[in-house]
Amino acid sequence: MSSLATAASRSAASGKKESIIQVGCGVVGGAYAKAYKHHGFEVRGFDVVPAIIEKMNAAGIPCCHPDNCPNDLNPEIVLLSVPTPLIKETQRLDMKYVWSTVPLVVKLIEQSTGIAPIFVIRSTVPPGMTKKWMAAVKEKTDKPFHVAFQPEFLRAVSCEEDARAPWQVVFGYMPGEEDVRARMTNAFLEFVGRDESKLTVLNIAEAEFMKLVHNYANGLKISFANCIYGLAHELDPSIDAQKVLYLVSSTAECFLSRKYGLRVGAPYGGVCLPKDVPELTSLAPEGSVFREFLSGTGKINEWISSAKAKNMRVELDESPNWVSPDALMTS
């Protein structure tokens, strides 16, 4: 093991808190910068918006424009939380702000005199973006550094509280870089009372994908509720969709068990789902957004049952949706 790797391991083992640099101090970055300060880390920030820079300095976190980067920071862990807005024409995320961080990152790497710094992208990006970004940085410096990805789950209305006390911490790292894993674990466990059950480690592509799936799942549930609300109104205005949905949350296995329905590679079977899903779908007016939304469930089930997906199907000894009655309220 190299001397730098040994130093990294010793740092993690000793519980030493590495210094934090937060690039991008808006809603998300600002909340995390304050959270790290709250947990006793040395923190400083960068942003391009004068009002944000002023706000961070007023909060006791030294912050400046990237053009005014000091020459003696010796970075250890650098968090990047820059916007990735949606491009309406393409319905893809705009990566220009992520790419714009490269010059500052190179400057920080060149300043490093200790263990190789870890750059943690926290912006929502498509799978593969972190590695592309790393390659672009490597083209501009020969000094060692590491990359990682950490999805964040902050809610806008409670961002600072969520940052200080997350219900789960997830991060992705490059396989084989166990010192990076140890250093990041050492930092992130501070936020969950050193409870390792609240920390999950993935590879970088899984972590990038997980962030998108996480947000899609939230959007899916909201749209599901509104679809049922709209369909109920079409069928019979006397149906109280809100009452029905809340009751379903207390009766349907998918709400009672966190794991129900998440065993991949097998279609739903039995008697009820294969007939009731098409029936509810057929109740929606032809050509309506409700029919379009509901029909996707049946189409996905047809796909996983078809010859097209035969190489993806998983042979199971029991139903993929089976959960023991004792586990329904806890699993």
UniProtKB/TrEMBL annotation:
Keyword Oxidoreductase: yes
Superkingdom to which the source organism belongs: Eukaryota
Domain UDP-glucose/GDP-mannose dehydrogenase dimerisation per the UniProt entry, residue ranges: 206-302
Protein EC: 1.1.1.132
Keywords, in A-Z order: Oxidoreductase
Record-annotated membrane-spanning stretches: none
Record-stated family: Belongs to the UDP-glucose/GDP-mannose dehydrogenase family.
Protein name: GDP-mannose 6-dehydrogenase
Lineage of origin: Eukaryota, Sar, Stramenopiles, Ochrophyta, PX clade
